[in-house]
Every structure is written in structure tokens, then in C-alpha cells.
């Protein structure tokens, strides 16, 4: 079995999950016989993290070949302008590895390191939704793909924030060892689902939770738990102690959606995941609560509502 090296390039103030998520994926894959060897390198031995846990890293790099991977985890930075302290020598390492046929990857703000190295020029990429516009301004020769989990372009793989590093790593395991192996890794890690790269960074459950209305949050909790079931508006309103009219008014003001439309978005999102995993449209429709595929097909063709920041609701 040929060993594939995965080198994590550590930057001070890195986010632990940016590192631990992908590292766990490759470590678990190695336990399943995939032959990964993990290394951690940095410009200094002692690496402070954003969460306060100190890390130790090697200064010397292992020998790398074209089968191997370098991953740059992200770090805490309100803006990319306050980038991680990677010197020219480390950036040159990234370029040299890619030029020799290797793969480089980033999680979250780690994309900025690839941008500084020139590896995003002329390529598609992504990053955390909070800094994607800044990434586009800093590297105008790159094409920043907004609100996706990860993007692969010519052995440069970039992912969104924090937990999406798990999705990126599972994708690379699938590329190297097949989708079935990646699914085994995901199951071992108790990951809810192996998501495709073009899925949105936030789920419908999160996109419409930026408001301050307790009653609407309670209604959403009920819908989230029973989105496949028929939920009469009267029963939903009674459960949160409001009239039907008041609940509809507050729900729409807080989320931009009616309760029914919110439930439909949940159903569509779950159906899309099932379809991406090989389910037929008919089977996916029935699994999420539609009587048949006609309604699902019609709703899939309808533009999604992107929530604005609502005024606080009582």
C-alpha cells in the first residue's frame, strides 16, 4: 500500500476545528486501511490556537510527492487583512508542491494563504461566508464562488468555514478511495451526512434563525422536528400560545417566510440531499413528506428566498 502524506501547515491563532475536523477524517480513513500519514509543520514549534489550546508542530518538512496533500487550516481574524503570519518560505513551499503535481487545500481563512501564494489566480475558490467578499477584493484574478462548501480547481481545493473542512476531507477521501469508503468514514465519525461541495454553507434551519422572536423560534423548533408531517397552522399556533393570524404575521416578519413556506424549504433541502446521494426524485419526495414528486419538482424550480436581517420581533 502506498502511503499518502497529509501535511497540515499551522498558523498562529488557528481554529481547532479547522484542523481537527480534516485530521480526524484522514486519521479515521487510515484506521480503515487507506494509508494516510499525517504531519504538522509550522514556522515555529509552539502554535497558539484561537481556542487557547497550545499545539506543538515540526519545523522540518517531510518529503512530499505528487500524491500528497498540504492543508492550511484557517485562523481567527475579523478580516483577511489581518492574515495569518506565513512567511515567504512557507508560501513558496505551497507553490512548489502544487507545481510538482501535488494538491493544496485550505479551510476558511486559509484561502488567504493560497491567495498570497498566487495559487488562487485564474482559479475558482471559496471561503467562509463572512470573508468571501473580502477574498474577492484581495484577489481579483480569482473567481470566488459564494455560499458553497468547497471548490476544487486544478488541485487547489478551498472550503468554507470551520466544520466544512470535514466535508472537504471526506470529498478527498472519496476521490482517492471511493464514495463507499468516505461514507464509512462519515459513519464512523457520526457525521450526519457527507455533503456535496455545491451545497449551501448554512442550512435552511440556520438561514432563517437570525431573528429575536422567541415564539417564532419555538414554532420553528416544532416544524424542524416534524417537517415531514402535516402541521395544521392552528395546532402550531396553539403550541406557541398565539393566534393563527399573529403567528403568521410574526413568523413572516422574522423569517421572510410563512410557516408553510419554511416547512417546504426544509423538505426541499432534505430531498436535494437524498437525490444527491442517488435517490430518485419520487422516492425523495415521499421520504420528506410530499405525496408525490410533482410538488417537489414545482418547488425545486422556484427561487429560494434569501433572508434579510429582520427587525427584532417581540
TrEMBL record:
Residues 217-298 form the HTH araC/xylS-type domain. InterPro entries: Class_I_gatase-like, DJ-1/PfpI, Homeodomain-like_sf, HTH_AraC, INH-QAR. It comes from Streptomyces orinoci. This is DJ-1/PfpI family protein. Keywords: Transcription, Transcription regulation. It comes from the Bacteria.
Amino acid at each position: 500500500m502506498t502511503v499518502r502524506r497529509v501535511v497540515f501547515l499551522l498558523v498562529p491563532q488557528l481554529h481547532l476545528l479547522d484542523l481537527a475536523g480534516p485530521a480526524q477524517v484522514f486519521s479515521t480513513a487510515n484506521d480503515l486501511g487507506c494509508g494516510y500519514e499525517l504531519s504538522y509543520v509550522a514556522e515555529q514549534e509552539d502554535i497558539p490556537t484561537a481556542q487557547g489550546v497550545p499545539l506543538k508542530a515540526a519545523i522540518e518538512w517531510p518529503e512530499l510527492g505528487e500524491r500528497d496533500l498540504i492543508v492550511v487550516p484557517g485562523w481567527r481574524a475579523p478580516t483577511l487583512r489581518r492574515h495569518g503570519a506565513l512567511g515567504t518560505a512557507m508560501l513558496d513551499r505551497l507553490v512548489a508542491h502544487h507545481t510538482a503535481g501535488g494538491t493544496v487545500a485550505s479551510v476558511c481563512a486559509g484561502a488567504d494563504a493560497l491567495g498570497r501564494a498566487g495559487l488562487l489566480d485564474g482559479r475558482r475558490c471559496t471561503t467562509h461566508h463572512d470573508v468571501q467578499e473580502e477574498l474577492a477584493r484581495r484577489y481579483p484574478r480569482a473567481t470566488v464562488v459564494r455560499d458553497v462548501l468547497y471548490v476544487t480547481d486544478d488541485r487547489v481545493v478551498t472550503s468554507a468555514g470551520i466544520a466544512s473542512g470535514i466535508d472537504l476531507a471526506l470529498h478527498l477521501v472519496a476521490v482517492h478511495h471511493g464514495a463507499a469508503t468516505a461514507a464509512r468514514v462519515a459513519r464512523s465519525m457520526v457525521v450526519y451526512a457527507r455533503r456535496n461541495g455545491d451545497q449551501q454553507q448554512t442550512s435552511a434551519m440556520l438561514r432563517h434563525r437570525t431573528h429575536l422572536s422567541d415564539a417564532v423560534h419555538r414554532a420553528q423548533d416544532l416544524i424542524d422536528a416534524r417537517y415531514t408531517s402535516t402541521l395544521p397552522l392552528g395546532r402550531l399556533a396553539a403550541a406557541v400560545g398565539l393566534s393563527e393570524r399573529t403567528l403568521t404575521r410574526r413568523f413572516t416578519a422574522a423569517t421572510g417566510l410563512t410557516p408553510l413556506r419554511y416547512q417546504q424549504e426544509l423538505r426541499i433541502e432534505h430531498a436535494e440531499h437524498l437525490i444527491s446521494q442517488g435517490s430518485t426524485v419520487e422516492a425523495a419526495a415521499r421520504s420528506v413528506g410530499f405525496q408525490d414528486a410533482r410538488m417537489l419538482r414545482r418547488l425545486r424550480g422556484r427561487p429560494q428566498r434569501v433572508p434579510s436581517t429582520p427587525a427584532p420581533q417581540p
